[in-house]
């Protein structure tokens, strides 16, 4: 878990990174939206939970939180859901019917603490309106991101994520070629179905984001990206024709293990 930082006066990032051996690091971000009715977006990694809650408490008294926007109930988004529900008694979890169903398999949510919002529907937070959307790429059927009318930010869930080689607090700090390669790799890992879509139909999905022209893209898996929406859309448009991701197989795993333990299973040779 890294230290939280501000992107705008009303948006903070609670950042972490997951190591992906052989491929780099993947940012795992949650966000605090300091709306009139304060809202948290996702709750980080399970392994980070105590540190995540400390970071959150350093930003806001969790009892002030009114909402959690759970973009989808994947393990890298629900890490502190249980302690958060305990510490924020008035907080309600924005998700979908499918999200509640998936949560019921491992962390059931009391119905009165859920708030069901489908793509296309909006929520008024007093000083802004959040409009739910299904991002162009996603890895689970419960996924919703949203547009914030006040900050002109698009909270995109897993969409626009990128594997990276070093931490960064701003997507502009990633060399352009690295960002493009890392974004393409992530898209093919996270949404392997992209290879099955009609690229023209997919482009109409991307056009919808272009039409809304968010100034700020806030992905769970990318440092904040300001003024970069068009470039991110261009890269994602090419993902359906990029090589499909194939993970290391058992032979590669054996090679890796033999480097660690030596060919006989003992410690590696020290030369
Ligand atoms: Fe996911
Ligand atoms: Fe994710």
Number of strands: 13
Major sheet description: 7 strands, mixed
Strand content: 15-25%
Report the mean per-residue pLDDT as an integer.
95
The number of distinct helices, counting runs of at least 4 residues, comes to 7
Order of helices and strands: EEEEHEHEHEEEEEHHEEHH
- Overall outline: globular
Ligand types: fe (ii) ion
What is the topology, as strand order, of the major beta sheet?
1-2-3-4-5-6-7
The rounded distance between the terminal residues' Cα atoms is: 37 Å
Task: Give an overview in words.
There is one protein chain. The chain has 7 helices and 13 strands. With 271 residues, it is an alpha/beta fold. Strands 1-2-3-4-5-6-7 form a 7-stranded mixed sheet. It has a 6-stranded mixed sheet with strand order 8-9-10-11-12-13, with no helix packed on it. α5 (199-212) packs antiparallel against α6. The model has no long low-confidence stretch (mean pLDDT 95). The protein binds fe (ii) ion (2 copies). One fe (ii) ion (FE2) binds at residues 74, 76-77, 158, 220-221.
In short, what is this structure?
By secondary structure, the protein is an alpha/beta fold.
Features:
binds fe (ii) ion, 28% helix, globular, 13 strands, single chain, 271 residues, six-stranded mixed β-sheet, seven-stranded mixed β-sheet, alpha/beta, 7 helices
Topology diagram in text:
Blueprint: E1 5-8, E2 11-20, E3 24-33, E4 39-41, H1 49-59, E5 67-69, H2 81-87, E6 92-95, H3 97-103, E7 114-116, E8 122-124, E9 129-133, E10 145-148, E11 153-157, H4 176-190, H5 199-212, E12 216-219, E13 225-226, H6 229-237, H7 250-261
Parallel strand pairs: 4-5, 5-6, 6-7, 11-12
Antiparallel strand pairs: 1-2, 2-3, 3-4, 8-9, 9-10, 10-11, 12-13
Helix pairs in contact: 5-6
């Amino acid at each position: 878990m890294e230290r939280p930082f501000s992107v705008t006066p009303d948006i903070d990032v609670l950042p972490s990174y997951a190591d992906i051996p052989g491929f780099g690091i993947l940012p795992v971000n949650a966000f605090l939206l300091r709306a009139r009715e304060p809202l948290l977006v996702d709750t980080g990694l399970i392994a980070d939970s105590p540190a995540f809650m400390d970071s959150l408490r350093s930003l806001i008294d969790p009892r002030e939180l009114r909402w959690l926007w759970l973009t989808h109930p994947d393990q890298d988004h629900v890490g502190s859901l249980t302690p958060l529900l305990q510490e924020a008694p008035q907080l309600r979890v924005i998700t979908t019917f499918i999200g509640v169903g998936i949560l019921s398999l491992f962390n059931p949510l009391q119905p009165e603490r859920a708030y069901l919002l489908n793509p296309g529907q909006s929520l008024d937070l007093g000083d802004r309106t959040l409009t739910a959307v299904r991002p162009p790429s996603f890895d689970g059927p419960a996924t919703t991101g949203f547009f914030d009318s006040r900050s002109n930010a698009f909270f995109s869930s897993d969409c626009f994520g990128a594997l990276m080689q070093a931490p960064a607090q701003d997507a502009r700090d990633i060399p352009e070629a690295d960002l493009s390669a890392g974004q393409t790799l992530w898209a093919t890992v996270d949404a392997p179905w992209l290879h099955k879509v009609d690229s023209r139909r997919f482009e109409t999905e991307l056009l919808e984001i272009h039409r809304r022209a968010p100034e700020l893209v806030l992905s769970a898996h990318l440092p904040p990206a300001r003024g970069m929406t068009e470039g991110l859309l261009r890269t994602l448009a090419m993902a359906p024709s990029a090589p499909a991701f194939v993970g290391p197989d058992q032979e590669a795993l054996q090679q890796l293990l033999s480097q660690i333990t030596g060919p006989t299973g003992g410690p590696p040779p020290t030369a």
